[in-house]
Amino acid sequence: MSSRIAQKLILVGAPGAGKGTVAKGLVDRFGLTHLSTGDMLRTAATAGTEVGLAAKVFMDQGQLVPDAVMVKLIAERVQEPDCRSPDGSPRFLLDGFPRTLVQADALQSEGLAPDLVVFLDVPGEAIVRRLSGRRTCPVCGNSHHVEFAPPTVEGCCDRCGSALIHRTDDHEATIRHRLATFEAQTSPLISRYGAVTERVDANQSPQAVLKAAVAVLRAYGVPLLDEKGPLGQA
Asked: Is 218 a catalytic residue?
């Protein structure tokens, strides 16, 4: 563990590991700027920036945005004041990037190698159980889970009464394919960042996962917004 305060943080986890929930909790408690690659792409494309327009060409064609464009987007974003600490150094929580060693090398070339990687670790079968049980309302966007949050009337949305659907992304075969891809890409990445990687058991309640993640950041010297606030509240 480094004696320096961690300022460049990366959140890693399989689809369904709870990255969004944890990221929001960490932002609320530490005042970090959450950088989601998807949000950054949409914002830059809408704003019509040079890198945003370059990304939009690929997005409109349904293609993956090239690594070089993504890294340029991130490098530009972290120059903004909300991604800077009082001494002017980068300070952010990056979610969804890098996913590969090539992307990690590109980040490092921009001086953005992480001080801390928080890996939300969940067994594959638990992920399958979480995601395959989701049912979504195509009308209002509300979601249910057949096991953890079943609708009052089977197959019907509690909010608007419409018929729930089982999205293709939530089919078991699709989930297992995504998990296999994640594992193949992420194992080398975790090895690369091993010295600054901390695993968090994310196969527990959201409150417990967030509490563990908060403890990791505190161990790396990241100050809470309110140093007197209790760590146990999640």
From this structure: no
Task: For 84-114, write each residue's pLDDT tens digit.
Answer: 998 899 999 999 899 899 999 999 999 999 9
Tokens of 6: 């961690």
DSSP, collapsed to helix, strand or coil, labels residue 125 as helix
Q: Confirm whether 19 is a catalytic residue.
A: yes
Catalytic residue among 42, 84, 129, 167: 167
Catalytic residue, chosen from 42, 84, 159, 178, is 178
CB-based burial label for 233 (10 Å; 0-12, 13-18, 19+):
exposed
Asked about 24 being catalytic, the answer comes back as no
Considering the entire predicted model, what is its pTM?
A: 0.88
Q: Is 178 a catalytic residue?
A: yes
The answer to whether the peptide bond before residue 223 is cis (omega within 30 degrees of 0) is: no
Domains and CATH numbers, the chain: 8-219 (3.40.50.300)
Annotation says 134 is catalytic: yes
Q: What is the DSSP letter of 168?
A: G
Sheet containing strand 8-13, edge to edge, reads: 34-36, 92-95, 8-13, 116-121, 197-201
pLDDT digits (tens, 9 = 90+) for 119-139: 999 999 999 999 999 999 999
∠ Cα 85 90 91 (to 5°): 65
Q: Burial-class residue 116 by CB neighbours within 10 Å (0-12, 13-18, 19+).
A: buried
Find out whether 119 and 216 touch, Cβ atoms under 8 Å: no
